[in-house]
Amino acid sequence: MPANLDVATQRIVVFVSSFTTLAIAIPALYAQFVMIPNFRRKLSSSGITIEASNPSLFAGCLLTVGLMVAVTIVATLPIIASDNEHQLQEEQFLSSSINFCEEDFQSSPYIAEPANTMSSLTCYVPLALFGLVSTRHGQRAKRFVVIYSTLLAIGLGSMALHALLTAQAQGGDELPMLWFTAAVGFCALDIIFHRYNKTIWLAVLVAGSAVIATATYIGGRHDFAIFYMLFSVYCQTMIFSLIYITLGIDWESISLHEGLQFKAAVLYPLTIATGWSTVLAVWIWVSEMLYCNAVMQDGAFGVVVAPFVWNRVVHPMWHFWSGMLAFLLIQVLVAAHGVQRGWGTPAIEW
Fold first, then answer.
1. Any residues with CB less than 8 A from the CB of 237 and at least 6 apart, and which?
2. Cβ-contact 207, 187 below 8 angstroms
3. What is the pLDDT of residues 192-214, one digit of tens each?
4. Nearest CA to 243 among 272, 209, 276?
5. 77: which residues sit within 8 A by CB, 6+ positions away?
6. 3-class DSSP state for residue 154?
7. Which of 61, 75, 251, 333 is least surrounded, with the fewest CB atoms within 10 Å of its CB?
């Protein structure tokens, strides 16, 4: 476990993660088992039938993660299978304020954490590039180009961090994470305040907060807790904005049937999938941060399977599911933004 995660930081991590889980789980369950059936009954009484999108969306998410896992294995195996007779003295080169469960320079003198490095490449980068080259005009709106660009920067920065474990590479990973959540927060708030036409003011406000967060991070980047708190503030803003977009905005005011169709077939399924992906990603990350030493050094949960899972699997799974939640979150924003601007009724196609 990283040395900077002392008892106080661990308590903060557990509290924030538990709060986030409750904030997501309660609305998600309410939407899934109360609101969506209610929408379907209303539409059914009008003779309109909506095909369930949840199974195809769920299958699409699993297939996408499975593909990323397969490509990561293929990319990582040659590295971890190679002989490393001339291992570098990695302790002389590591300057990041956080480390991870994968053993440093175990398989290569040039790549500190092969599985973590390759999973960054096969997860964030393809999803970001897919969004950037999308042919749909909604995806090409400047705000979404910025969001996909920051997601791409996260992927490249994460690769650098896990390959080098230096303070500079860590900044290349964590600063884009702050910028991504700030950009997403702007898009979400602009959807919420759309009728007031305050886009410019919101952009200035969020950009100013990003500048302050960047300066604060640079000034305290030796302490991982500072980044974690900044990131948590942006994430909570993002989560509650998304909940309001889903449950608080009267989408039926645009058109009763189209509004109900949008919520039942697109908005709610996408938001629910984003929420559960978030919960899964959060607790995968927490399990690494809290139990790494216990598993790797003390033999908790066994001495064969568990050490392998924490060494090679846990953090890549964080990459896969955090990448998936980021991509799904962007699709929620694209759909809601498009409905407000009359781009037509969106549909889920995986």
1. 181, 185, 188
2. no
3. 999 888 889 999 999 999 999 99
4. 272
5. none
6. helix
7. 75
Residue type, 292: C
Amino acid at 277: S
The packing angle between helices 114-132 and 142-164, to 10°, is 170
Count of C-beta atoms within a 10 Å radius of residue 87: 12
At residue 112's C-alpha, the angle toward residues 109 and 118, to 5°, is 115
Task: Give the distance, in angstroms, between the CA of residue 335 and the centroid of all CA atoms in the same chain.
Answer: 18
Q: Show the tokens assigned to 292.
A: 């790494």
pLDDT at 89: 46
Distance CA 110, CA 188 (A): 41
H-helix segments, the chain: 7-30, 36-45, 54-80, 114-132, 142-164, 167-192, 199-219, 224-247, 256-262, 268-296, 305-308, 314-340
Q: Which residues contact 168 (CB under 8 A, 6 or more apart)?
A: 95
Q: What is the rounded CA–CA span in Å between residue 261 and residue 269?
A: 11
The dihedral formed by the CA atoms of 306, 313, 14 and 4, expressed in degrees to the nearest 10 = 90
pLDDT in tens, 28-52: 999 888 888 887 787 777 666 665 5
Cα–Cα distance list, 9 to 6, 228, 290 (Å): 5, 9, 10
Residue written as token pair 């971890």: 80
Other CB atoms closer than 10 Å to residue 346's CB: what's the count?
21
CA dihedral 267, 252, 22, 61 (to 10 degrees): -10
Question: Rounded to 10 degrees, what is the CA torsion of 314, 184, 350, 43?
Answer: 120
Positions in the chain whose pLDDT score sits under 50: 1-3, 86, 89-90, 92
Q: Which two tokens stand for residue 318?
A: 């964080």
Q: Could you tell me the sign of the dihedral formed by the alpha carbons of 272, 273, 274, 277, in that order?
A: positive
Q: How far apart are CA 42 and CA 251, in angstroms?
A: 14
